[in-house]
Amino acid sequence: MTGPEGPSRFPVDAFPPRLALFCLAVAEHTQTPPELAACAMLGALSTVALGGRVDAGGWTEELTLFLLVVMGPAQRKSSVMRAVLAPLEDLDRERRAELRDDVERVKTRLDALDRRKQQLLAAHAKQDDRTERDKLMAEIDEIDHETGQVQEPHHYRRLASDATPEVLGTLLSRHGRISVLASEAPFLDNLLGRYAEGTPNLHLTCQAYEGESTIIDRRRGVEEIPRPLLTIMLAVQEHHLPKLIEHPVAQSQGLVSRFLFVTPPSLVGHRQISTPSVPQDLANAWADTLRHVHTLLSAATRDETDKTIDSEGSVGSVARRLKERENSSLLFSFSPGARAVFDALRALQEPELGAGGDLAHIAAWANRNPGRLAKLAALLHLADGHGPGTMISEDTMNRAQRLMLFFETEGRRALEQPSAEMRRALQMLTGWETGHVTVRDLHRSVFAAHGPVRPARELAAELEDAGFLERVESPGRPGRPTELYRITLENETTPAARETASA
User: Fold this and answer.
1) 155: left (phi over 0), alpha (psi -120 to 50) or beta
2) For labelling alongside 389, which of 56, 87, 116, 359 has CA 20 to 30 A away?
């Protein structure tokens, strides 16, 4: 594996052997880089594992993941997503069918209770006898108590695609756990304000990464979500990456720092025409893995979608089920060997996050890597077929470490790419008629002379640090020296400059 400047490959063999073969088979059949299928598999594993937690030592991590795979157009992203997500969609259809009768019975019961309440209210209004009025009111109170214990039941739902932040809030309020797994970017556009005049609404999305409780006040009422859980896996085109990582609100509110980024190499121009189908036994192994984790986590975390009627015929208390789900979770822990590896990696990274460290410039993102490592270890543990009562092994932690090293390499490449201002400045400098440029020139050309000059001055310093400019002495007017720079873009000692400018 190489550093951020060169290509990296997903360590597929970190997966259990049969799942690694499935990943490679999907990649071969679709003639796509294995990174795409692998990230889709991680998104699906996270989806069925939502509700589980892992003890990271001093804090716990939800098994949520935010993944962004960046690829060019017409590179068969949808084909890969269909192949990987098919068994997950089958599980959802089965679950909806299992619960359909129960949900409809609860709806019928609630309708009956509402009709009975209206009858009692009408009778109460006509009743003159105080004792009878009290009896009627007592029955009304019993109905209110029963209906107040459960929200309106909804059919099972776990997957979404083109949801707005408001709809996402409703989905999480109803179901508690939602995953957005898609080969397009509408959900990302929605988050960044497509339908809100460019104003992002990111709070719930960020809270659902952590499972942080929230209350949403709406005109139609209050939506209380004790433990919202959200997994995102999007395969998007290249222009969506800078749109996200350069968005000031997405940066300041922590959305960018929650994502893992992957930019696989394109295979266009080198693809085979005839490819073998994915072997059915490998597809079955992948489907069985998802079913195993789904069954394990559904039982352990008390899926609140199971809105059944109890043995006495009253509506089951969904409020109680939600409270149980909030306080009862499948918690994974590390073996002593895994803990030693995990703590050693944390100790190795910590100094690099501080001032002058190798990760200081992306500390907000890199600071989440230990938590992500714990998540990946727990997901691999589940994919290996382990359940409650077993600890994450040192071998599993080592495999998760290889995954995390890949994601760190890819994340650095994504986050360290030139900013929009840097790209505009480099384009300007390549066509500049003279060999020198001032800060005021940068302010006029890059920032259209809008706002203060300070951002242009900071940009000049970045260009100087990158070797694209060299500060030269120029007194300018008395008392007001000109900030003058010599353009070194074409200097043979900085070949990266020409490559970045052309990009």
Assistant:
1) beta
2) 87
Q: What is the pTM of this model?
A: 0.77
pLDDT bin (cut points 50, 70, 90) of residue 175 is confident
DSSP designation for 182:
E
Tokens 């990271």 belong to residue: 56
Residue 494 sits in a domain of what CATH number?
A: 1.10.10.10
DSSP reduced 3-state for 351: helix
Q: Are the beta carbons of 236 and 68 closer than 8 angstroms? A: yes
* CA-angle at 381, arms to 378 and 386, nearest 5°: 125
pLDDT of residue 500: 46
Residue 459: inside a domain: yes
H/E run at residue 481: none
Residue 16 lies in a domain: no
Following DSSP, what letter does each residue of 76-139 receive, concatenated? -HHHHHHHHHHHHHHHHHHHHHHHHHHHHHHHHHHHHHHHHHHHHHHHHHH---HHHHHHHHHH
Please report, for residues 103, 189, 198, 254, 419, the alpha-carbon distance to residue 247 in angstroms, rounded to integers and kept in the order given: 42, 12, 11, 11, 11
Domain-located, residue 465: yes
Residue 315 is given by DSSP the state: B
Range of the domain at 437: 420-502
Number of independent structural domains in the chain: 1
Tell me the residue type at 497. Answer: A
Q: Is residue 273 domain-resident?
A: no
> How far is 436 from 472, CA to CA, in rounded Å?
9
Strands 221-225 and 214-218, sheet pairing: antiparallel
Mean pLDDT of 400-424: 87
How far apart, in whole angstroms, are the C-alpha atoms of residue 376 and residue 11? 13
Residue carrying the six token digits 């030693």: 340
C-alpha span between 23 and 447 (Å, rounded): 46
Which residues are registered as beta bridge partners of 122? none
> Is residue 166's pLDDT more than 80?
yes
Per-residue pLDDT for 127 more than 90?
no
* Integer CA distances (angstroms), 48 to 229, 289, 325, 396, 479, in order: 11, 10, 15, 19, 67
Q: What is the pLDDT of residue 56?
A: 93
Residue with the bigger pLDDT between 51 and 154: it is 51
